[in-house]
C-alpha cells in the first residue's frame, strides 16, 4: 500500500522529490508531470540529428498505418450511406487513426506536432536552447514527411488498397475537401484545436503510469480532433499524398497551401495553448494583487491545481485505515504552513511559493 511521505509539510518542493513521490502512483500531475515533459524535452534535443530524423520517419510510418486503417473502414461505406450519414466516415477514421499515436508513444518515434508542446515546455523552463528546438523541429518535420510519403506510396498506393470503388471516390473527395474546400484562414483555425487535442493526448499519456492508462489517455483526444474534421499537418502529409496518388484533381501547390496553414495553426495549439497553459499552472505570477497592493501575494508562484488535487485524492484513497487520518493531517499541516504567511483571510485557499531546484 502506498503511504504519504513524511516531509509534505515543507513548502520547498524539489524536482527530484516530486518525480518519485508515492502520491503519483497512478498518474503524474503538476510538477511531477512537468518533470516528465522536461526530461523528454532534454532527451529529444540531445539526440543527434540523424537519429531524430530516423525517429521522425518511424512516426510518419505509424501515422501512415493508422491512416490506411481508417481509410479502409471509411472508404468501404457505400456511397448512398455516406451521403445520408456523413458523420460515419469521420467516425470510422476517428476510431482507427488514434492507434498511430499509440505506436509512436509506446514503441518509438518523434512526431512534429507533439514535439512542439514538449520542446515548448522545455523552452519556457529554460532547460533547452531555441537553436536546439528549431533544429529538432525541422529535422523531425522532414522525417515525418519522409515516413508518410514512403507509407503512402508503397503501402497505400502500390498495394492498390483503394484502387476500386467505393474506396477511390471516397479518397478523392476526402482529399479535395482538405485542399480545395476551404480558405487559408479556415484551415488555420481548424489546425489550432487539432494539435491542442493531440498534445493533450501526449500529456495525458505521459501522466499515465501503466500501459492501459496510456492507451486510453492517448485515444480519446485524437478521436475528438478527427471526428471534428480539424487539420493536423502530419496526418495531412499522408492523407493528401495518397489521395493525389489516386488521382484527386488537385496539385502539389494546394498540398503546400494546406500545410502552411496547418503547421502554423498546430504551432499555436501545441505551444500557446498546451505548453503555455501547463507552464502557467505551475509557475503562475499574479499581476492583479500587485495592482491592488495586497502585500506579497503578487509574488506567489503556483496554484492549488493538479498536483495538490491529485495529492488530496490519493490521501482519500486510504479511507477506513489508520493511514487516512495520518495522511489527511499531514495535508492539513502542509496547507497551514504554505499559507501561514499570507494572513488568516486567505490561508485556506492560497499555496505558499514553490521553490524549484
Automatic annotation (TrEMBL):
<dbReference type="InterPro" id="IPR024002">
    <property type="entry name" value="For/NO2_transpt_CS"/>
</dbReference>
<keyword id="KW-0472">Membrane</keyword>
<dbReference type="InterPro" id="IPR046341">
    <property type="entry name" value="SET_dom_sf"/>
</dbReference>
<keyword id="KW-1133">Transmembrane helix</keyword>
<feature type="transmembrane region" description="Helical">
    <location>
        <begin position="219"/>
        <end position="244"/>
    </location>
</feature>
<dbReference type="InterPro" id="IPR023271">
    <property type="entry name" value="Aquaporin-like"/>
</dbReference>
<feature type="region of interest" description="Disordered">
    <location>
        <begin position="1"/>
        <end position="21"/>
    </location>
</feature>
<feature type="transmembrane region" description="Helical">
    <location>
        <begin position="53"/>
        <end position="79"/>
    </location>
</feature>
<feature type="transmembrane region" description="Helical">
    <location>
        <begin position="133"/>
        <end position="155"/>
    </location>
</feature>
<keyword id="KW-0812">Transmembrane</keyword>
<dbReference type="InterPro" id="IPR000292">
    <property type="entry name" value="For/NO2_transpt"/>
</dbReference>
<feature type="transmembrane region" description="Helical">
    <location>
        <begin position="91"/>
        <end position="112"/>
    </location>
</feature>
<protein>
    <recommendedName>
        <fullName>Formate/nitrite transporter</fullName>
    </recommendedName>
</protein>
<dbReference type="GO" id="GO:0015499">
    <property type="term" value="F:formate transmembrane transporter activity"/>
</dbReference>
<dbReference type="GO" id="GO:0005886">
    <property type="term" value="C:plasma membrane"/>
</dbReference>
<feature type="transmembrane region" description="Helical">
    <location>
        <begin position="256"/>
        <end position="276"/>
    </location>
</feature>
<feature type="transmembrane region" description="Helical">
    <location>
        <begin position="187"/>
        <end position="207"/>
    </location>
</feature>
<comment type="similarity">
    <text>Belongs to the FNT transporter (TC 1.A.16) family.</text>
</comment>
<dbReference type="Pfam" id="PF01226">
    <property type="entry name" value="Form_Nir_trans"/>
</dbReference>
